[in-house]
From TrEMBL:
Organism, scientific name: Drosophila melanogaster (Fruit fly)
Family stated for the protein in its record: Belongs to the N-acetylmuramoyl-L-alanine amidase 2 family.
InterPro entries per the UniProt record, alphabetical: Amidase/PGRP_sf, Amidase_domain, PGRP, PGRP_domain_met/bac
Name of the protein in its database record: CG8995
PANTHER family: PEPTIDOGLYCAN RECOGNITION PROTEIN, PEPTIDOGLYCAN-RECOGNITION PROTEIN LC-RELATED
Gene: CG8995
């Protein structure tokens, strides 16, 4: 709720920026959901789904439950037709000047199926 209030009141957006959020309690929280364009990554909002892990992950990973729930969310999105079967998994730090999702979590996500290295495309 705090993040949603910040996005609405301070940023002037109509809702929280992300489509979904993953809590370290292993729960998925719906932000804008599957069918509403997010406001998470300038230049990518209309062609992507924004998933945020709640917390700071510079040195430590989210819980195993949280990581599994995110993978399950992606699989469910594919199964239900919200996400293409050949989707590309790209992190915020690859598109914008930010440390999000945190160094440690970024290292982990690079090992997931569908991770896409934008830097290789630009070379």
């Amino acid at each position: 709720r705090d993040m949603q209030c910040f996005h609405i009141e301070s940023r002037g957006w109509n809702d929280i920026a992300y489509n979904f959020l993953v809590g370290c309690d292993g729960n998925i929280y719906e932000g804008r959901g599957w069918k509403t364009v997010g406001a998470h990554t300038l230049g990518y909002n209309r062609i992507s789904l924004g998933i945020s892990f709640i917390g700071c992950f510079m040195k430590e990973l989210p819980t195993a439950d949280a990581l599994n729930m995110c993978r399950n969310l992606l699989a469910r999105g594919v199964e239900d037709g919200h996400i293409s079967t050949d989707y590309r998994l790209i992190c915020h730090c690859q598109c914008n000047s930010t440390e999000s999702p945190g160094r440690r979590l970024y290292e982990e996500i690079q090992t997931w199926p569908h991770f896409y290295n934008i830097e290789e495309e630009e070379q």
